[in-house]
Design goal:
With 607 residues, the chain is α+β, with helices and mostly antiparallel strands.
């Protein structure tokens, strides 16, 4: 009887996620679904209820994925709907892939005014690879600029579905919400799996609670998980006790048992974020599953930058802040490093530039910790002539071996997908070729919209590529990328010398063709930003011992000859010579303070 009840219970579960490009109304649609199913009381209602971080609300983006359970009665039967909200930005695509793996279906949201964007297609392919049932939703049909007929045709061409399967909706006004809920129940299959098999559950997210440790969010594929039982994480091979389990409503609801097909949370008292890996499998050590869920991989940082405290005495405080932040953001990687210019700090790995910005802002807001961020760079592989097979990872320009001992350097490449209007194709191509991109494919989705595919070095998109892409396309381009491996490249280390002293925090690895231009621009930018001193300050860009560019910040000079009003010229010369000696001595002992904005100046070289 119990087995029959569990099977009947599984038939009434629907697990789904929402995939969309940024600003296509994903969080607003989630709000309407929660309203319609009665998951929120009037007191709990607010816009973007699942985006509970201040930064998410201000920027209008989802940074963390969120899971919530709703109950909905359809044709006199009660169904449990588990919604797993996913981030829309390309930097967080690993979180999206884990969320998709925990679902059987997905709502594909497309803005009726903006049509299909690059991130929509990228996440759609992820969903199709996982055999998800796709329900297309045409959102924002109430906007004056909406073009529902044309965008519906775009969706039909993309998915190969019928036009009547596309649900017109407006998350803002509530149009089409009931049809979406009915489609979720009718079209999305119920979970497969059996409660009688050994426990096998997928971890798709984790958050840090300062009082209770790490809260692990999971989806049970097979078996059941009970309160108080022993559990094991397969990737780390560590055993714990399930102190509390439950389902994720707006607040957590503790339960005694969670069966196959359902989504829930688990508290084991773990305090270390590295012990809980997103994508790992939970099992029972007494009756373990012999199959780990596929797709688990370590999160790989794509961009590296140094983070240093403004005041060197705050180093230990910064370490504590970073460790607390890592508990909430498992994709942040950091290890100590020191710089002659900035003292002690950390080399940090990020998923992308948006991730870097968010970490920097969270450090300042949540921990009151102002920081200096050095020039971001990607991770390279160096090979020496002595041992050409051994890979040396270069996360910092100062790690690069001496050029005389270097055999070759390889840099990470990405496959970039850009969707834009056909009138901007020339501008986008020029920008991509300038950034060392090689065009691979040009596909007209409609007569007006083109998808361009390039192979590009990751280092070229780290700085200002996305901003410039928006500029050249007047905001009508969307961008997505995925890594495709390492390729050999002619890279050189460009050093900046200030008053003949090397500033290691401003060093950068740059392609040999761009080295002269970038060195020249950096010198010009630093000349504007560094305040004048009592002595001349030479700013030089160098590759090894070769100086490729120089600028000079002129000294603030006192007119020592002002008191000479006539008389012999030798009096004036004597005073000027005396001043010259003083300036020379001052330059030898003088210390040049570098302002914070100088370290980020390299990012805005094209302004």
């Amino acid at each position: 009887m119990q087995r029959y009840e569990r099977r009947r219970f599984m038939k009434n579960i629907r697990n789904f996620c929402i995939i969309a490009h940024i600003d296509h109304g994903k969080s607003t649609l989630a709000d309407r679904l929660l309203d319609f199913t009665g998951a929120l009381s009037d007191r709990e209602k607010q816009d973007q209820v699942l985006d509970n971080m201040d930064l998410e609300r201000e920027r209008g983006i989802t940074i963390k994925s969120h899971a919530i359970q709703m109950e909905y009665t359809h044709e006199k039967e009660t169904y449990i709907l588990n919604l797993i909200d996913t981030p829309g930005h390309v930097d967080f695509s690993y979180e999206v892939s884990r969320s998709i793996a925990a679902c059987e279906g997905a709502l594909l949201i497309v803005d009726a005014a903006q049509s299909i964007q690059a991130q929509t297609i990228s996440n759609l392919y992820l969903a199709l690879e996982n055999d998800l049932e796709i329900i297309p939703v045409l959102n924002k049909i109430d906007l004056p600029s909406a073009n529902p007929e044309e965008v519906t045709d775009d969706i039909v061409n993309l998915l190969g579905c019928k036009s009547e399967e596309v649900i017109p909706a407006s998350a803002k006004t509530g149009i089409g919400i009931q049809e979406i809920l009915s489609a979720i129940i009718d079209r999305i299959p119920f979970p497969e799996g059996s409660s009688d098999k050994p426990l096998q559950a997928l971890i798709f997210d984790s958050v840090y609670n300062p009082f209770r440790g790490i809260e692990t969010y999971f989806r049970v594929i097979n078996g059941t998980i009970k309160k108080g039982q022993k559990i094991q994480f397969i990737a780390t091979q560590k055993n714990y006790t399930a102190d509390e389990i439950g389902t994720l409503k707006l607040t957590q609801e503790p339960k005694k048992e969670i069966c196959a097909g359902d989504v829930g949370y688990l508290i084991t008292g773990i305090k270390e974020a590295k012990d809980v890996k997103v994508g790992d499998t939970i099992t029972n050590p007494e009756n373990p599953t012999n199959v780990a869920i596929e797709g688990f991989e370590e999160v790989k940082p794509m961009v590296f930058a140094g983070i240093y405290p403004v005041d060197t005495e705050d180093y230990e405080e910064l370490r504590a802040s970073m460790e607390k932040l890592k508990l909430n953001d498992a994709s942040l990687v950091f290890f100590p490093e020191s710089s002659a210019a900035l003292g002690f700090g950390f080399r940090c790995g990020f998923l992308g530039m948006l991730h870097l910005e968010i970490i920097q802002e969270r450090l300042e807001r949540e921990f009151n910790m102002p920081v200096i961020t050095t020039v971001p760079n990607v991770s390279y592989q160096a090979f020496t002539k002595k041992n050409p097979e051994e890979i040396l990872w270069v996360n910092n320009p100062s790690d690069l071996p001496d050029p005389s001992a270097l055999d070759r350097v390889e840099e990470p490449y990405i496959k970039a997908s850009i969707i834009t209007k056909s009138e901007f194709v020339g501008n986008v191509m020029s920008l991509s070729i300038e950034k060392r991109g090689q065009i691979k494919n040009q596909n007209y989705l409609t007569p007006e919209r083109v998808e361009l595919t390039f192979d590009m070095p990751l280092a070229e998109i780290v700085f200002d590529f996305y901003d410039r892409l928006k500029t050249v396309s007047k905001g009508y381009a969307s961008f997505d990328y995925s890594p495709i491996g390492m390729r050999p490249s002619k890279l050189v280390k460009v050093d900046i010398l200030l008053n003949s002293n090397q500033v290691d925090a401003l060093s950068a690895l740059i392609h040999v063709d761009n080295a002269y231009n970038i060195g020249k621009k950096m010198c010009e930018k630093l000349r504007e930003l560094i305040p004048r001193q009592q002595f001349d300050i030479p700013i030089q860009a160098a590759i090894g011992a070769k100086i490729i560019s120089r600028e000079t910040i002129k000294a603030l000079r006192k007119d020592v000859t002002a008191k000479c009003y006539g008389g012999d010229i030798s009096r004036k010369r004597k005073l000027l010579e005396k001043q010259k000696k003083g300036k020379k001595k001052m330059r030898q002992v003088g210390n040049v303070e570098i302002p914070q904005q100088a370290f980020m100046a390299v990012l805005k070289l094209n302004d």
